[in-house]
Specification:
about 850 residues, transmembrane helix, 25 helices
Length: about 850
């Protein structure tokens, strides 16, 4: 028989067998649908956000090209160059304190000053409906300002009231409803206040060393495309390499938000795949159970001349057809979930959404589902072709070897390789997919060995103790025992849950306990040189203030690494942020007490030679540099090249003052730097400290660390809810597989129960023995899951996040007890009906 003729015959026979329904495949279909739905929902939402960012890229950036510079203006020569290419809109951004005219406590605000050309793309929408520049014109002789509603609520003000910004009083003329180029409101220090650039000049906020970013957006002539934008950016970079410009085109308008969403998508996809992996255990069990009921049919087909390949093909087609159906159902459900939940979630994190049919993530999720089904179904399917026709004559011959053939092993390895390849292609970093693959293989191997050890120990334990316990232990190793299925299904689901819960618990502990315990109460920014001593004296004189730390600070941008332009250097993704914009720098003579060196030596206290640098050791590792290498930094338009003399370890989780780059003092001590101050105070003293500093030093920006941590905690809670929801799907898949594994044993349970009753056992005796067996199984699975999950959580926190690990025994205890309770509950519910059945049908067949 030719290949295609054989395939047609296999299809016809597979279709005929499926006419009898898919009974027994409920868990198979549900597990695949759950996992595929999770992956689909994550993928579709991410695709919608990517589409929204792409469609609105020019509006979100504010132009085709944007350039910014910290502290000082970009320069007239830069403006002349870009003005010849298109329309230009100038802006300035900074944080400042906004003071109500009533003298109440000021509020930190994100200030933005714009010119009359703003916006180049999109539309600025105010609540009154009038234009922005009408609102900024002011009234009653005062310049105008528009503000976000949140700022007015914090100040207890409304349109028409007056506020102070620097040395100028502004009247709030309107409320911002939509700011076109505000990419995200996911995280920000202070709500927006917008004024005109002309008014900014009068405020006195523009001063040497002040943390202000000047910039311009460019709308290219004649609707020029991405090539023209990239060309202009390259020309600016080549003609002004020492100017310290941060250059962006509309293709990179998402900035760090894109990286964050990509990372979140990868993590959630991996959790969804974990649900598929757990569901794969259910796939294998369902296939094995289905084939056990088809042994006679297979024997008949083989006695009529069917080949092993034909039999294998028939049942492989059936299984893959059902896998496709389950995956399609999951894709539909996942798409609906993404469509219904995308709007509220996008509004929460402040990102635009595209609206379309996103087939790529749906197709990818379907492929994941099919590959997982193939990996777990081929193994038991390969044994069906080994059934012998002689099995029709009971007791005449054994059914033959059921070990998988070579082709099954090769197919499993090929499907696993394809799955890993897809993960690597779609992930922003190879570490997560490789870690997931390694963790999956190790976990499956450990659970397999664990199940074998438990069966071996149960078989060799001495037959002593109460009869109920002896019977429970015997149930762990008898033929057909569900030990392996229970350990795999419940254990893998609980492992994923433990990893997620411990990682989330450590993050919450870091934000809510560790960092607040070590972080300052306030950061005071832009403290002028001449007023530093006065501010320190005022702060320390207040009751409840424990200490004040201070360091000189100035902004600079890394231009070159060992003479190679920063934009051409190959650096690790974990530290690429250090090159994206200006960084805070400082200088020091004597070595500060908190500086812990990893390599190199600190310079002498009286050092006055060429610039030396103490650099963050983690960033240095990602940059591929060390002691003796050089960094070139633009500081206020001046190129400063320093040699790395030492690297140091920085713990950013303390929340204190930390600078990635510390220069030797000669370079910066005469520059127009400002002071960065951190104040540590008792909680009751914080309101008075804030009021005194902001009233006596109006030019100083005060940032409350408590408010910052609360906002971060809210963001982490939102992300944690999404991850925990996906982990719950994994656990649900595990419980479904667990229930099916226990249900598959009901016939044997009923026969055993009848025999025990005939021998004098009561229903209570039988139920007690079963409860003990289920409790032992649940505890065994939960304990190994707790151990593996703890290791996984520790690796994620310490290696993935570079955080400090905190052991959470309460979380582990809850998971272990929950695993035991789930196993006992599902087991008892499954056998209760079986125990209530009549004994006569069983006895008649014996």
């Amino acid at each position: 028989m030719g290949f295609f003729a054989g395939l047609r015959l296999a299809l016809r026979l597979a279709r005929r067998e499926l006419r009898g329904g898919v009974r027994g495949f409920g868990v198979f279909l549900t597990c695949l649908a759950l996992g595929v739905a999770t992956v689909t929902a994550v993928g579709v939402f991410s695709a919608a956000v990517d589409d929204g960012l792409t469609r609105d890229a020019r509006r979100l950036l504010g132009g085709d090209v944007q350039f910014t510079r910290t502290h000082v203006q970009p320069g007239a020569d830069v403006i002349d160059l870009v003005s010849a290419r298109g329309r230009v809109s100038h802006f300035a951004r900074m944080r400042t304190m906004v003071r109500p005219a009533t003298g109440d406590v000021p509020v930190l605000s994100s200030l933005k000053a714009v010119d009359r050309a703003y916006p180049l793309y999109g539309e600025m929408v105010l609540e009154s409906g009038r234009s922005l520049h009408q609102a900024l014109a002011g009234q009653d002789g005062l310049p105008g300002a528009v503000a976000e509603r949140e700022l007015l609520l914090r100040l207890n003000l409304r349109p028409g009231d007056v506020v102070g910004v620097g040395q100028v009083r502004f009247v709030i003329t309107d409320v911002i409803r939509k700011e076109p180029d505000r990419v995200t409101q996911f995280f920000g220090l202070g709500p927006r206040l917008m004024i005109s650039l002309d008014a900014l000049q009068e405020t006195g906020l523009i001063r040497p060393g002040g943390l202000i970013r000047f910039g311009a957006n460019v709308r290219l002539n004649n609707g020029a495309g991405p090539d023209a934008a990239e060309s202009l950016m390259e020309e600016l970079r080549e003609r002004f390499p020492d100017r310290g410009l941060r250059l962006r085109t509309y293709r990179s308008s998402g900035g760090g938000l894109t990286w964050l969403l990509d990372s979140l998508e990868t993590n959630l996809t991996l959790v969804g795949l974990a649900a598929l992996l757990v569901g794969g255990i259910g796939v294998a069990g369902a296939v094995r159970s289905f084939l056990a009921g088809r042994e006679s049919s297979v024997a008949v087909m083989k006695s009529l001349g069917a080949s092993r390949r034909l039999v294998n093909t028939i049942y492989l087609l059936q299984t893959m057809g059902l896998a496709l159906a389950g995956s399609l159902a999951g894709a539909v459900v996942g798409t609906l979930v993404a469509v219904l939940g995308a709007g509220p979630l996008a509004a929460r994190i402040g990102v635009p959404l595209g609206y379309g049919l996103y087939w790529e993530p749906v197709f990818l999720a379907l492929v994941y589902g099919i590959l997982i089904a193939l990996i777990f179904a081929v193994w038991p399917l390969s044994a069906v072709g080994r059934i012998r026709p002689a099995q029709l004559f009971r007791g005449y011959a054994d059914p033959g070897s059921r070990r998988p053939g070579l082709w099954a092993v090769l197919v499993c390895l090929g499907a696993a390789g394809m799955l890993l390849g897809l993960l690597l292609l779609t992930s922003p970093s190879p570490r997560l997919p490789l870690g997931f693959a390694a963790g999956s293989v190790i976990s499956i191997g450990l659970f397999w060995v664990y199940a074998w050890v438990i069966r071996l120990l149960a078989a060799r334990m001495p037959r002593v103790g109460p009869p109920h316990l002896r019977q429970a232990i015997a149930g762990l190793h008898r033929p057909g025992a569900s030990t392996g299925s229970v350990l795999f299904s419940l254990g893998l689901g609980l492992t994923v849950l433990v990893v997620v819960l411990l990682a989330d618990g450590n993050i919450q502990d870091l934000i809510r306990r560790q960092t607040p315990a070590t972080s300052p109460s306030f950061f005071f920014i832009d403290v002028p040189k001449g007023r530093m001593a006065e501010l320190e004296q005022v702060a320390l004189a207040m009751p409840g203030v424990e200490r004040v730390d201070k360091t000189p600070t100035i902004r600079g941008r890394i231009l070159e690494i060992n003479g190679i332009p920063a934009y051409e250097a190959e650096v690790g993704k974990g530290s690429s942020w250090a090159l994206r914009s200006d960084r805070a720098l400082t200088f020091a003579g004597p070595r500060p007490e908190k500086v812990e060196l990893v390599t190199g030596d600190w310079w002498p206290e009286d050092y006055a030679g060429p610039p030396l640098i103490c650099f963050d050791s983690d960033i240095a590792k990602d940059f591929g540099v060390g002691v003796g290498d050089t960094l070139t930094v633009n500081i206020l338009g001046r190129r400063v090249t320093g040699t790395i003399a030492a690297t140091r370890d920085i713990d950013y989780t303390t929340g204190g003052i930390n600078h990635a780059i510390i220069f030797s003092p000669v370079v910066l001590e005469r520059a127009p730097y400002t002071w960065l101050v951190s104040a540590y105070a008792e909680r009751e003293a914080e309101p008075l400290l804030f009021r005194e500093i902001t009233s006596q030093f109006p030019e100083v920006i005060a940032i409350s660390m408590r408010e910052v941590l609360e906002e971060i905690a809210g963001i982490v809670a939102d992300i944690g809810l999404a991850v925990r929801s996906c982990a719950a799907v994994t656990l649900l898949a595990g419980l479904l597989v667990l229930a099916e594994a226990l249900r598959a044993n009901l016939r044997t349970r009923h026969r055993d129960a009848v025999i025990f009753k005939v021998l004098g056992a009561t229903r209570r005796d039988v139920m007690l023995a079963l409860v003990l067996e289920f409790a032992i199984l649940g505890a065994a699975a939960a304990l190994l899951a707790a151990a593996l999950g703890t290791v996984g959580g520790w690796l994620f926190v310490t290696e993935g996040m570079d955080g400090r690990w905190v052991f959470l025994p309460g979380t582990l205890a809850a998971v272990v007890l929950g695993g035991v309770a789930a196993t006992v509950t599902l087991g008892v519910l499954g056998v209760r009906k079986s125990l209530a059945g009549s004994a006569w049908p069983v006895l008649r067949n014996e």
